[in-house]
Amino acid sequence: MSTARTESHVILGLSNQNGQLRASGKPAGGPGGGSPQQPASQVKASSTINNGSSQPAPTNTVIKPGDDWKKNLKVPPKDMRMRTSDVTATKGNEFEDYCLKRELLMGIFEMGWEKPSPIQEESIPIALSGRDILARAKNGTGKSGAYLIPLLERIDLKKDCIQAMVIVPTRELALQVSQICIQVSKHMGGVKVMATTGGTNLRDDIMRLDETVHVVIATPGRILDLIKKGVAKVSQVQMIVLDEADKLLSQDFVLMMEETLSFLSKQRQILLYSATFPISVQKFMNSHLQKPYEINLMEELTLKGVTQYYAYVTERQKVHCLNTLFSRLQINQSIIFCNSSQRVELLAKKISQLGYSCFYIHAKMRQEHRNRVFHDFRNGLCRNLVCTDLFTRGIDIQAVNVVINFDFPKLGETYLHRIGRSGRFGHLGLAINLITYDDRFNLKGIEEQLGTEIKPIPSSIDKSLYVAEYHSESGEAVKP
């Protein structure tokens, strides 16, 4: 998969359905000009990530006794942006406190992860002990690290078999988690990580599983298919993680999850992570988890760093309102949500006609186009992404500081996951909701359900609420 160049030709039609619309006459980055700055700590997706079959060669760093091994690390520049107590209210632990392999610690620090977040502090020692976990934590507070670190610590490289599985609800999230896993384990001398999802060639997966694979990161349908075909041998899997467990245990996937577990050893360890836990999760826990350790870091549901506003408009005024927001806000990157695939494409076309470049993504697109859009947007090649709720689950793009609900969702759970795309890892973000007359009861209901306040949008929005440069690390607003 090659990287799209921002100076490519203008595409105003939707004929090729590739999800990338360029505008003529304005910078490809969109409002504000220039290209968004990606934090150095952000994981960059590989340009050959289909099925996880391409990964960097393991790094075997030779460290002599007495060497200061930290001195040789390629650590990204320190992230000086302000962070909220969602990730800073820790017990003061260090990653070295958990007696992790030095090679794993090297990968952790080279990711830019300096100290464990609250969910990581709670999860890592319990997961290392082999106990089942049921964990609730907010979006963007480090859940991936909370399960990947103990998972990698427990991999035995002498065994040429699948030892751990991570199941996620969307293909994009599978690719993202696999890239993080590959990066964190790069010094460990040959941990083999494979991502397998629907929409890709099954034959490639079969050939890949003929070789050594230690960790599989998968969507439910594809991994079950591979297990039932006898290709993915999971009898020695010691740990299975359900990330975004509420979605995986919904009616869409729960039967697949039950069947997948039936192929595993009875001694396996199960880790469930999510921001919301409906009754379906409770039923699954009672059936399959053995005396799970419960973690709940959800005294409040919404992220502290995300400021929420609504603009009361008619349906016909929405595009004009969006254009006004583009011209007035200081957007690094934005994600704009619609309630259907058709509306996503129509809005993306409107935005490009207004003179702003944008990408779009939804579940009905071909998988190679979804991969391309996801990869290029993560790498900052476009400022605006229009999408459906496909993109609400776990997707971590640090540069996103504005989320716009062009169509307001009906469920509080959907709203929570959407606005959680900004304000990642304790940083600042802005959520703006375009509300019509028909949405007014949903707005009130979601405010009450989530215990949050969505305020009327002011004529001018203070940049210190959502623009990193206006804050010091101490959290004090910086005057321009």
TrEMBL record:
Residues 124-295 form the Helicase ATP-binding domain. One of its GO terms (molecular function) is ATP binding. PANTHER family: DEAD-BOX ATP-DEPENDENT RNA HELICASE 50. GO terms for cellular component: P-body. It catalyses: ATP + H2O = ADP + phosphate + H(+). Its EC number is 3.6.4.13. CDD domains: DEADc_DDX6, SF2_C_DEAD. PROSITE patterns: DEAD_ATP_HELICASE, HELICASE_ATP_BIND_1, HELICASE_CTER, Q_MOTIF. A motif (Q motif) lies at residues 93-121. Keywords: ATP-binding, Cytoplasm, Helicase, Hydrolase, Nucleotide-binding, RNA-binding. The keyword Nucleotide-binding applies. The lineage of its organism: Eukaryota, Metazoa, Chordata, Craniata, Vertebrata. Residues 1-75 are annotated as: Disordered. Residues 43-62 have a biased composition (Polar residues). It comes from Alosa alosa (allis shad). Signal peptide: none annotated. Residues 93-121 form the DEAD-box RNA helicase Q domain. It is found in: Cytoplasm, P-body. Belongs to the DEAD box helicase family. DDX6/DHH1 subfamily. Residues 65-75 have a biased composition (Basic and acidic residues). Residues 305-465 form the Helicase C-terminal domain. This is RNA helicase.
